[in-house]
Structure formats: C-alpha cells, structure tokens
Input
Amino acid sequence: MITIKDKREIELMKHAGLLVSKMHKFIKPYIKEGITTKELDKLCYDFIKKNDAVPSCLGYEGYPATLCTSVNDTVVHGIPGNEKLKNGDIISIDVVIGYKGYQGDAAWTYSVGEIDDEKKYLLEHTKEALYEGIKMVKPGNRIGDISNAVELCANKYNLGIVKELCGHGIGLDMHEDPDIPNYGEKGKGPRLKEGMVICIEPMLNSGSADIYMKDDNWTIKTIDKRPSAHFEHTILVTKDGYEILTPRLDEED
Output
C-alpha cells in the first residue's frame, strides 16, 4: 500500500534526510587510500548515534553493519570489513538513518584518489540518470515516467541497467510501496501524488547488466567484474513538483 505522509511525518522525514546528507558530508573527507570500509562504518555509526538517530541498516533482516560499502565491481550491499581502499577505487556508500521512526536514505559513489576514464564516465552518467529520473517527479505523473527517464539516460551512454534491483517508497519502513525500477514505459505504473516519499536510485554498470550474489547472501557484484555505480536520493512529491530530502551539502555536487 502506498502511503501519503502528513505534515508531521514530512517534517520528521526532512530531519532524517538531512541527517543522511550531513553524514555523507562528514564521511567524504575520510574516503582515502588506506582506510578500511569497517573504519568508515564505525565513523558513521558514531556520527548517527551522536545525532540521536538510528542506523537503520544495522540488523535489518540480519544485515551486520551501518553502511553498505560497495567497492568497484560490487553493485550494492557490500559489507564493511578489513578491505583497505586503494587509489583508483570507487566506493558506493549507502545509508538509511531513522529519526523518531521515520527513515532517510541516500547512496553516493565516491572516487578514491585519481580514477580512470571508465570510472569517471560511469559516475558522471549514473549521477545524470538519477537527476533525469528526479525531473519526472510531480503530481499526476506515473512511476513509469521516472523509470523511463532513467532507462533512456542509461541507454544513451551504453551503461548496463541492473534490473533485479530498484528504488522504493519510504517512511516508517525503509522499503515501502511502490517499487521504482530503473527501466520502464512512460505513462505506466502508480500515479504520483502530493505527500508521497520515494527513493530513486539508479544502479548502473560500466559493462554488462548481469550480476550475482556472493555466498554471504548480501553482496551483489557484476559478473564481468566491470565497475558499478549507485546514486540515490529520497524525494518528496510536493504540490508543484518535488523536494530532495537528502540534498548534497558539499561544494562539488
């Protein structure tokens, strides 16, 4: 069931979303060669707790960490560990933060030092696909309008669209109706209404769209070992369009 948030719920979700934004800004300077993904996870756990909030991924369906840290050919749900970041890596950091029961969710893919042209191309155009999808958000449009905009952008740049994973509604739970695929037909799917809150999150691969899950039942990687990128915002449907509840707070984005 798709829920419409009232004014009180929206204010709580704005606070949760802003905490997600602040956490991304906080952790970005630490994303350097030599740090482990487990160290990044601990820094973010401490940050969230200091802000009287909840690291919602921790324990979710048994997930063992605060962040999903997905490096290079890991698409999503990379579990933080003792892996040290290297110059030339890319890392997607996905986090959900709860505040008074309501959730904010955003993912961003970061460069570690100097990355090659393939990864620069992937990051630039996966981010572009996110914002092309967001442009379609307004009352009266449909989920398929968002999905189609992401798909057209990905196809324009010959990026592989991960079809097994998708965006979603969000509120008291981190995953609510409706699903928001990164491919689809314009004019199809549920209609957007003022007060809906959704997460749009292109997951695009530099090569093939084919993926597999590791034996840990979480980590999803590209079969061809080519890099993957993931960009996500939490979006409120407003009277006239949309508001990004997880705005980028650093100067570059």
